[in-house]
Amino acid sequence: MDLSTTILLALFCLLLCLSAFFSASETALMSLSKIRLIHMLEEKVRGASVINLLREDPNKLLGTILVGNNLVN
Question: What is the pLDDT of residues 35-46, one digit of tens each?
Fold first, then answer.
């Protein structure tokens, strides 16, 4: 296998992983219920406050995730 094939294969794997990340982020953040998020905030789960900030404007969050997913696809 020559160098250009190796680079293309590595790039393909990177883009595939990024696509999976954006898809998983969309599913996880959009399916999280408000009750579960409140419980996470009360329990002081690390990252819960960041998720709460992101969920304040769901249209902006979803738009950003979808743009990222479209760029890597």
Answer: 999 999 999 999
Q: How many domains is the chain built from?
A: 1
How far apart are alpha carbons 29 and 26 in whole angstroms? 5
Whole-angstrom distance, CA of residue 45 vs CA of residue 30: 18
Residue 47 domain boundaries: 3-72
Q: What is the average per-residue pLDDT within 7-17?
A: 96
What is the DSSP annotation of 17-55? HHHHHHHHHHHHHHH--HHHHHHHHHTT-TTHHHHHHHH
Query: The pTM is what?
Result: 0.81
